[in-house]
Amino acid sequence: MQIYKVGGAVRDRLLGKPVTDIDWVVVGATTEEMLAKGFRPVGADFPVFLHPKSGEEYALARTERKSGRGYGGFTFHASPEVTLEEDLIRRDLTINAMAEDDQQNLTDPYHGQRDLEARLLRHVSPAFAEDPLRVLRVARFAARYSGLGFTVAPETLELMRQLSESGELEALTAERSWKEISRALMEDQPQVFIEVLRECGALKVLMPEVDALFGVPQPEAHHPEIDTGVHTLSVLEQAARHKQPLTVRWACLLHDLGKGLTPEEEWPRHIAHEHKGLKLIKAVNERFKAPKDCQELALLVGEYHTHGHRALELKPSTLLELLQSFDVYRRPHRFEEFIAACEMDARGRKGLEQRSYPQADYLRGAANAARTVAVQPLMEKGFKGPELGEAIKRERLKALKAYKEAASA
Ligand code: CTP
Known about the structure:
The chain is α+β, with helices and mostly antiparallel strands. It folds into three domains: about 1-110, Beta Polymerase, domain 2, CATH 3.30.460; about 110-370, Orthogonal Bundle (cca-adding enzyme, domain 2), CATH 1.10.3090.10; about 370-409. The protein is built from 20 helices and eleven strands. It has helices spanning about 10-15, 30-35, 85-90, 110-115, 135-145, 155-165, 175-185, 190-200, 200-205, 210, 230-240, 245-255, 275, 280-285, 290-310, 315-325, 330-345, 360-370, 375-380, 385-409; strands at about 1-5, 25, 40-45, 45-50, 55-60, 60-65, 75-80, 100, 105, 120, 150. The strands form three sheets. It has a seven-stranded mixed sheet with strand order 3-4-5-2-1-8-9. Strands 6-7 form a two-stranded antiparallel sheet. The longest helix is centred in the last third of the chain and has 24 residues, at about 385-409. Bound molecules: cytidine-5'-triphosphate.
């Protein structure tokens, strides 16, 4: 049997990037031989094994034929006769279809190295269409490598367009899609992921609520970029620039969905878009089964981001309601993430990327002021049950009034 390093490990070494996990392909071996060498099988009918010591993935060279819709619809053909070239041709991109032996000799039948140099994400063969998830993967690689100058080859974009129109994307499971989306959002240029999906028509299928934001104008005074879709991409770009976590990036992507529902006669104003957007945010959250913290933050940021921007003008009672909605007393971290998302929203506007955001410290100060209210003395005064709750609220309101006065003095 011959063993080769394949996929991302070869690509990233040639790009001079750190290699994290290594995938291997084994040519000329049978399942029985692998088991005899102590490899552990990964799935019942999947010719993939884990190395007994390193735990790395070793796959038998295989050809893949699609036999139906969705991810379940695959049949694998793995046998010792399958060649390295046959295995590589069914892979997604030429830059992912190179193999290397233990002497670092490169096998590159589909010119991955040439495409690395040309900075092109190009599909290897029509077999690309066998897994529609690859549309998301290409967009994710574009997000990762656009800083190096990579773009999607026109013929690959065309194939992605056909796949998006074919209805195949709808057959993807929430779990597989979320894995790609969440990884793409954590790349350096996550906005490129959304741009590429939009360009090939996949955004319309996967997140029509985000796609609908393009072409929707906002008032120029607050939004020099005008277009809501362009604004959303800039907010995401800022979130990555400021190294925000996934929760914040997800909330940034979805914060303005309500603007896509505004009747044209009301443009460029978007009255109550925060509230109108909530059902859309909920739908996108559920479609991809986003983790609970991402879902929660997206809904809260959707509902309250304008409050964040207007923090300095809010009445103490409104400020208190905001803090209560976030449960800042028990969930301080979530409130910090809200503030971060608001700040990214404020900076994700043309020419305003460097603006200061005094609202952030003001909101932090307000949360601290409300937190200083001690419960014990109120209990000692005899308050309990709902009355205690009311008394705490009154004291917090007092603290916020004092805070606002001190801040504006
Ligand atoms: N692959 C593919 N189609 C997929 C998934 C994977 O063709 N839908 C192939 C590619 O050759 C890829 C390899 O399997 O390089 C390993 O896949 P994976 O580990 O998911 O990706 P990497 O390319 O290693 O990229 P990353 O750095 O994002 O993990």
